[in-house]
Amino acid sequence: MQNLIRTVVLLLAVSLIAGCSYFGVYKRDIPQGNLITQDMVSQLHPGMSRSQVAYIMGTPLLEAPFSSDQWDYVFYLDEAYGGTVQKRLTLTFQDDQLVDIAKSGDMDSDVELNQGDGPGPAVEGAGESAPVPQIGPSGI
């Protein structure tokens, strides 16, 4: 009887382990850094102020530690069942004006980030929005 129980437990454990490896592991795309699109890069031109650049690109991921004249925007996407996408944009300022734009990576292809797909909690603001209450003549 003990051998039968051990055999059943062993077969159950082997079938569970085999079942887990059959389906594989769920993977997600992992984006990191600042999203850099072709539209954003095409709006940049020498002579722009820091505030104009920040309006278009957002805050930089990296600033040069000893000089605030260089801003780096880095984007890295590790695709779940594919390769990786890397983009880097280095902006150099002189007297609060943009003087140089250095690009590396594939700036021509835009990356689509699917935030609402898959299991897990919903992304805040991704669902249907509640109707905005209207204020009538009575103030309510």
Low-confidence stretches: none
Total strands: the figure is: 5
Span from first to last CA? 76 Å
Q: Which value, in Å, is the CA radius of gyration? A: 26 Å
CATH architecture descriptor name of the domain at 28-105:
2-Layer Sandwich
Which fold does the CATH topology of the domain at 28-105 refer to?
A: Beta-lactamase Inhibitory Protein, Chain:B, domain 1
Largest sheet properties:
5 strands, antiparallel
Shape: rod-shaped
- Please work out how many helical segments DSSP would assign: 3
Strand proportion, as a percent range, falls in: 25-35%
Element string (H = helix, E = strand): HEHHEEEE
Helical proportion, percent range: 25-40%
- The CATH C-level name of the domain at 28-105 is Alpha Beta
The computed structural class is alpha+beta
| Average pLDDT | 78
Describe the fold and architecture:
The termini are far apart. Strands 1, 2, 3, 4 and 5 form a 5-stranded antiparallel beta sheet that branches. The model has no long low-confidence stretch (mean pLDDT 78). This protein has 140 residues and is an alpha+beta fold. It has 3 helices and 5 strands; from the N terminus they run H-E-H-H-E-E-E-E. The chain has a domain of 78 residues: Beta-lactamase Inhibitory Protein, Chain:B, domain 1 (2-Layer Sandwich), CATH 3.30.1450. A hairpin with a 6-residue loop joins strand 2 and strand 3.
Provide key terms for this protein.
alpha+beta; 5-stranded antiparallel beta sheet; Beta-lactamase Inhibitory Protein, Chain:B, domain 1
